[in-house]
Structures are given as structure tokens and as C-alpha cells.
Amino acid sequence: MQENHPNIYYEIKGEGKPLLFLHGFLEDHAMWESIYTNFLVEGFQCILVDLPCHGNSRFEGDECSMGFMAEEVHQLLDFLKITEPIQVVGHSMGGYVGLELSQLRPTQLVLLHSNFWADSDSKKLDRDRVIKIVEQGKKKFIQEAIPNLFAPENRENCAAIINQLIEKASAIPYKEIQAATAGMRDRSAFKNTEKSSFAMIHGELDPIISTKMVKEELSQLANKPQFISLQNVGHMSIWEDHPSLIKALKTLLIP
């Protein structure tokens, strides 16, 4: 089933226990196609959205905050009359949105190549640079940023999907890229609590979120989340090692 919610685009696949997929920065709902098909046979109702500033969901404003995105998803789930606790898989930026969503409704979240801490001062400066760069050089930024999400040794094998991702991202208006970037820059940190419970899947070769940083941040949590590390994988395991990702998700998701 495909619908157009008044605010954000979404698609629903299958019937059963709701399972929400939230894509990352410069991505859209279509990234999950090879993933959700593995869960339809297990009785899940897979909900795929285009978050504001991405895909078919347009946005006008200076900052598309993670809280705003989560509120839009929350309203969509109300629109769909989903009241029970929902399982969520959030890739990168989608994980940030999932954390905010957990403050609005009972959520069991898998952070996929995502994290729960706020941007450091240096990372915020990087975000500010992106905001300035994309206005004049959006195409060049996208052509450089997307390949760098993959581990170097996986880029050749993933060349076709990298080109597809670049083409799709290039269709996003630069102001919306700026707004989403500002939203990531200004997001809050979260802890693993009863209200905001999450598990993590991390790529050992992730060039965006280092394994060292993950371990340091996890060491500071009183309640340690379930944690799965994928070998030989960067930030994009959905394409770098699809079988290992499916295995990890099936370990964490409850049918």
C-alpha cells in the first residue's frame, strides 16, 4: 500500500506487528527494500517513510530538527492508528529521529550506524561547513560525502549503489540539506533508559562513527544496550554486508 500523508510520504508493506524504518541523511525510504522483504514473511507490517527534507517529503524552513522529524512520524503513526509499542530501525540520522520518537511513544529502537550522544564542538563546526558548502557546491559535496560512508575496501564493489545514492541525493534542494544538517548539529544526547531503550549495530570500519568513540560513550552508560559489531563494514552495511545485517536485525527484532 502506498499513501500520501498530509506532511510526509510513506509506504506500508505487509501486515502484522508494526516495524518502522527511518532512513539516514541524504537517503529515502527505498534504501530499505532489500531489508524489509526479509521481515514480511515473519508477520511484520513494515512502515517506510521519507523524513522531511528527503525523498518525496518536502520542507520549508531554516532548521529541520530531529524533534520536528520525530513529531511528524509520531503524527503519521497516530494517523495510521498505531497505538502499541513500535519497533524502529533507524539508520544514522534516522536513529537520531528514533531517539526523539522514543520520547513521544513507547519505542524499541535499533540504532543502525547511529549514535546517542550530541555533536562535539568540532563536529558542529563540520556541520556548519557543510551548510556553507552546499549552497554553492551541492553536487561536489554529495559526490564526495556518499562514497566516504563506505569502508574504502568496499567502495569498488558498491560502486553502482554509490552512483544511485548520489543521483537521488542530488535531487534534494540545497536549502533542505542545510536544514537537516542544522537539525543534526543541534540534537540532544540520550541515555539508555526504560523510556528511551535502544540497541546498537555498528560497523567496525565506520568512517563516520569510530569504534573507539562508540566504546568510550558506551562505557559511560549505566545501562548498557545490546550491541552488535559488524566486521569489514563501514557506515552502510545494508549494501556492504547485507547477510550479516539481516542476521543482526533478526537477533534484535521481536516478531
Structure report:
The longest helix is centred in the middle third of the chain and has 25 residues, at 121-145. The chain has helices spanning 33-40, 66-79, 93-101, 121-145, 159-169, 174-185, 211-219, 237-240, 242-252; strands spanning 2-4, 9-13, 17-22, 44-49, 86-91, 107-112, 197-203, 227-230. The chain has nine helices and eight strands. Helix 2 (66-79) packs across helix 3 and helix 4 runs antiparallel to helix 6 (174-185). The chain is 40% helix and 17% strand. The protein has 255 residues and is α/β, with parallel strands linked by helices.
A few lines on this structure:
This protein is of the alpha/beta class and 255 residues long.
What descriptive keywords fit this protein?
255 residues, alpha/beta, 17% strand
Order of helices and strands: EEEHEHEHEHHHEHEHH
Report strand %.
15-25%
Shape: globular
Strand numbers in spatial order across the main sheet = 1-2-4-3-5-6-7-8
Biggest sheet statistics: 8 strands, mixed
Tell me, rounded to a whole number, the average pLDDT.
93
Q: If helices are DSSP runs of H or I spanning 4 or more residues, what is the number of helices?
A: 9
Any low-confidence stretches, pLDDT <50, length ≥5? none
How far apart lie the N and C ends?
A: 21 Å
Query: What is the total tally of β strands?
Result: 8
**Helicity, in percent?**
40-55%
Task: Write down the Rg.
Answer: 17 Å
Structural class: alpha/beta
Task: Please give the structural blueprint.
Layout: E1 2-4, E2 9-13, E3 17-22, H1 33-40, E4 44-49, H2 66-79, E5 86-91, H3 93-101, E6 107-112, H4 121-145, H5 159-169, H6 174-185, E7 197-203, H7 211-219, E8 227-230, H8 237-240, H9 242-252
Parallel strand pairs: 3-4, 3-5, 5-6, 6-7, 7-8
Antiparallel strand pairs: 1-2, 2-4
Helix pairs in contact: 2-3, 4-6
